[in-house]
Amino acid sequence: MSSANNLPAEQDHGDGELAVKGDNPFADPGLPPHEHRRTDIDEKAANRAERQVAFLFLISMLATIGFIVSYYAIPKSQIVYIFLLGRVSALNFSLGLTLGVALFCIGAGAVQWARTLMSDVETPQERHPIEADKETREFVFEEFKAGAKDSAFGRRKLIRTTMFGALALVPLAGVVLLRDLGPLPGKKLMETNWAAGKRIINHNTGEPLKPSDIQVGSLTFAYPEGLSEEDEQFQEKIAKDALMLIRMRPEDIKDKTELDWSYEGIVAYSKICTHVGCPISLYEQQTHHVLCPCHQSTFDLSDGAKVIFGPAGHPLPQLKIHVGDDGFLAASQGFQEPVGPSYWERP
To answer: Which of 30, 202, 208, 242 is 20 to 30 Å from 7 at the Cα level?
Structure first.
C-alpha cells in the first residue's frame, strides 16, 4: 500500500515479534554539553564573587547590630512619617527593617554563593533500590566529600568567616526580643506584703482570724491585712501573699524551728507551690501532707513543709506568727525567703 511507503520497514521473525528497521525514535538525547561559568575559568571573577557574598554576610551582621541598638535606643512612644506607610512607630519600623535586611542578606549571600562558586556540573544518576549496598554507601560518602570540596567551603575562608558571623549574630535579635516578655521583676519576686504586726485575714470571710477560729485538723486560707479583693492588683498580690494555716497538735510537729514559729500548733505556710506556682489546696489531715493539684508535689507540714514527693525544688516558706494584744493572729515578720517557684536570682 502506498501509505506504508513512509513507515519503517517491519520484518516478522516468526515468533510473533516485529523488528523495526531504522533508528529508535525515543533514544535518550543525553545532557547538553556543560557550559562553564566565568567564575569557573577566571580566578579574578571568582574572587570578586567571593567578596560579594562576604559583603552580603557583613551587611547582615551590621543589620543585626542595628536591630539591637534600635531596640534600646529608640523610645517606644516615638512616631515617624514613612512614605506610603504614614505615621508608624519608629521602633517597630526600625526593628522590622533591620531584621528583614539581616535575614535577606543571609539568603541572598547563600544564593550568590551557590550560583557563582559552588559546582554546577550536572550529575545524573539512574534509579536504584532503596536499600544501598556497601559500594553505594561508599560512593555516597565520596560524593559528599567531593561536594564539600566543590563548594569551596574550606578554601573560601572569607565567605566562611562572614557566614559564621552572620549566622551567629542573627539569633541575638530573638534573644533581645525576650526582654519584651514583660517588665523586669527586680526584687518583686523576693518580697511580699507580709510584715511584722500585719493581722491574718480569713480569705472566705474577710475578717481577722483568732486562734479559736482554727480547729485541729482544719485548713484555712488567708491573706495579709490591707489587701482587698476590690484592689485592681489583688490577683497579682495574692499570687505571692496567699497563705494557708493548719492546726496540728504541738506534739505532732517534728521540726523545732517550725514549732517556734507556730502558735499553739497553728502553722502558717505559703500557699504557692515551689514547682511552678500553682495554689496548693489539698490537705491530708491524718498525715499532715498537702498536695499540689497541678503536678502532685507533696509537702509534709509536720516537718518543715519538706518535699516528700513530686517535682518541687524546695520546701514551702513558713511565716512566723503570734497573737497580738487584740487577740488576733498576726505575722511576726515577713517571709524570710522568696515564695513560689525557683528562679535564677533566687538566693
So the answer is: 30
